[in-house]
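Narrative summary of target 7.
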Amino acid sequence: MAVLTIELDPTTEQILARLTADGRSATDVVREAIRLADRLRWLEQARADAERLGKDPDDLAEIRAIRQELGHPDAW
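Modeled conformation, tokenized:
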């Protein structure tokens, strides 16, 4: 397990104080923040991938073909 030491600016200290006011430890808050940051990065990558794929003519043709095969009403 790694140990992390960080310096907080005053604004971040205030935020941390609010987030720990319910009794959670700073460690738990930081762990949650890291997990959320990872999830946000994953979602941003998924959004970028979807946008890219949504503009790719080959992928769009394949989606149309699958929809036709499945009888999807938007296939036409």
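Helices lie at 10-20, 26-54, 57-70.
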